[in-house]
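Box 3.1. Reading complex inputs
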Amino acid sequence: MAEVLVVTSGKGGVGKTTSTASLGVALAQSGQKVVIVDFDVGLRNLDLIMGAERRVVFDLINVVQGDAKLAQALIRDKRVDTLSLLAASQTRDKDALSEEGVERVIGELREKFDWVICDSPAGIEKGAALAMKYADRAVVVTNPEVSSVRDSDRIIGLLDSKTAKAERGERMEKQLLLTRYDPVRAERGDMLKTDDVLEILSIPLLGIIPDSEEVLKASNLGSPVTLSSPTSAPARAYFDAAKRLRGETVPMTVHSDKSGLLGRLFGRRVA
Amino acid sequence: MSLFGFLTRRSTAPVARDRLQILLSHERAFVGGNDLAATLQEEILRVIAKHIAIDRDKVKVNLDRGESFSTLEIDVEMPTDEEVRARA
């Protein structure tokens, strides 16, 4: 039975696309059939983060509107063969997406894959609403920073009221992915701690991705951090999160690249 | 900043946490309460209109959510005797 997962946040720039790509790779490497779908129509970037920007011929809009078959639009990853990408359109408007069309495409993807991961655009407009509409569960990506936490709270409210699952009276499963976390600054009292964010948003924690220069290097290369630098701290954190998505129990650690005293000290600290 | 300012430096994260907690408790109430006030206004208006000829603009319903308690304020301006007589 396929799981449809939306990666959302409200605020832009917190790491939705990076997390979609990294989790997609991690799940696919564990043998699961995964498709990552870019819902950011007009501002697509998942193709670029995946290094597939020159392979996009047909996109989500073409499939939604019936101009291309799903099989023509799916881009098979060259490095992980159980991973596929469905790109967003760069030239069209988000109004080209319809509820019926998205529901049909998600339904078709459910039959082909174990995981359908929808990368939501920022904001709470149509694109974001459609990305979450037919999801079974949600990953809320949040930075330990006031505006990101506030926007995540708003998104959680929408997940609980505007999704097809909520409208059927079912409970939407939501998990928090805390990104760009710096345990040293949090310990110093200059960054919200994991517990602060969890207490405010009151949803369970999927993982803590440490702030790391490896993430920017990975996007420079067009290769998600779980592929380009699998032993780095953020990659290990994404692998842990992917295991938790599959229902495994993994102890919650803040991974660290630093081998120094501070890194060792805070690296083991459990949220 | 004083010479020994670093010794008394206050951390900023607790301020962020407190501000968020206060802000979000209001925003959560507001998002849910906005429709409630409109619904109440419409229903109260209908009940009053059954018994008294009343101007739609003269019924005001306000929902004010405070930290310790919330108030529902219903303000109905009754027509004066002259207005009632004029209409009759």
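In summary: The mean pLDDT of chain B is 76.
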